[in-house]
Amino acid sequence: MNNIKFTFEFPWALFLLIPVLALILVPWFMIPRERRRGFRKTVPAILHSLLGVSLVFILAGAGLSWVGSPPDRGEKPETEETRDKFLLVADSEAEAEKILPFLPEDADADIRVPNQVPLSLADLNRYRKVILLGVSADDLPERFGDQLALYVEDGGHVLAAGGEHGLSLGNMKGTAYETLLPVSFEYSAEKGDSVALFLIIDTSNSMSDPDTLGRSAKLSMAKQGTIRCIETLNAEDTVGIISFSDSAVLRSPLVPATETEKAVLSRVVSSLETNGGTIYTGALQRARRELSASDARVHHVIFLSDGEPSDGKYDEKTVRLMVDEGVTLSTIAIGYSSPILEDMAAQGGGRTYLVENVEDLPDVMLSETETVLADPLKLTETAVIRPGGIPTDLPALQGYVGTTLKENADLALETETGDPLFAEWTVGGGSASAFASDLAGDWTARWRETNPGRRMLRQIFAEGIGTASEEPEEETPLVLSEPETRTWTDLLFPFGLLLLILSLADIAVRRLRWKDILRMFGRV
After folding, report:
1. Nearest partner of 174 among 211, 226, 137, 206, judged by Cα
2. In sequence order, what E strands does 14-168 have?
3. I need a labelling partner for 20 at 20 to 30 A (CA). Which of 4, 79, 291, 415 fits?
4. pLDDT tens digits for 176-222?
5. 241 in Cβ contact with 265 (< 8 Å)
6. Cβ-based neighbour number of residue 484 at 10 Å
7. What is the DSSP letter of 142?
8. Tens-place pLDDT, residues 487-519
9. What's the first-to-final CA gap in the chain, in angstroms?
10. Contact between 376 and 402 (Cβ < 8 Å)
11. What is the Cα–Cα distance from 355 to 341, expressed in whole angstroms?
């Protein structure tokens, strides 16, 4: 037996030590010094402190884990042979069933929705591998991530897949899941994803008014925000500007965001003036036409207005066509909550903002632009290669979630733009891996329909650290290291026994009679 670790199933409960010890020791210290020196004063304080610590340890689920077999136990420790199932966590059973043909032939699968996952380490240790099929951290129990990390430390294997609600899109950034996985969710598009951005600015008469708080004119702040957005873009990006009131005006077609063009665009923006009413339709249609001619990998529109359209509607058909063509749309409402702008952003796959203080508008516009530049959701067709630019015969992906490879992680597959697709690493006695696409959804549908894709899926679902290969003869991953088996046991009985012994010792030291004890509980 070696590598013993003292663990807690509910580590947050250890914070109870502070009030428990305070309740025990503060009254003792309040006794005059000459009265607390005696045996019958000091020893009970020590015993009560140990009682309190033991009780808190029991509440925190204290336990021991070790590599190998304990010398004094007869039962068989948990090993890979006793882990006979795969745990598939998916939003629906139908989704999980799509990957069943690609699991190892001897594997049984236990399918759970996120809110029904096992939460104890003992239950998790019954599984050979835990697979998260694009589920959101928001839908999983709060402490499941910490338990999953302990499971991997104890020799388990975890695979987390992307999807529209997976990885960073499922709010896993900054959580135990990101710590466990071989990829970071800090992501930027500097590796070659060019952006085509259209800024649509309301120049109706109301934009010359101050905001509802009586501060700066709305158009003046919109100009500042637009210029800051433009300054943020890289030279490989393109940007265009449309203003609208009663009609839409193309102020600038898409042009490269070079320093020269940025200076020209700043003058164009500065010259904008207000006039007329508010009609959305023409501006959206013009932006769609301009973006359809762009070969950038990311197409996005920021639509800014301070009022509902005069005709009470927007062109829903144009927004749907934009989404079909890979264009996303975000909206900014100045000074009021707009159901129409909220619906536009929801239909357009973007974000919506309410700016009540117009002086915050430049920061909001800049934040949205930076979000677009670092948006991890990639919905364009992407070829799959091996590290070093080696091509594969795998079908192209229809989407993935952008991530950043961590130091010491093994990269098996990547996208043609250099983003990690399948990465693995060793954690304690087990392993964790991440697949940036969706595995059971539309993004990898062609993988499940072709021989190269099927072979690769079998590689990905096999447990252990390995280098995935699309060659037919490489049906199982190359194991780089044999994981150690870690066994865990709780310490509830030992601490409970200690609690009883300390209680009896306290009774003996204080020479309490049964009548005194019963009086404490109100029985006499």
Report:
1. 137
2. 62-67, 85-89, 108-112, 127-133, 157-161
3. 4
4. 999 999 999 877 655 456 889 999 999 998 888 765 544 457 888 89
5. yes
6. 14
7. T
8. 555 565 666 666 667 666 665 656 655 555 445
9. 52
10. yes
11. 12
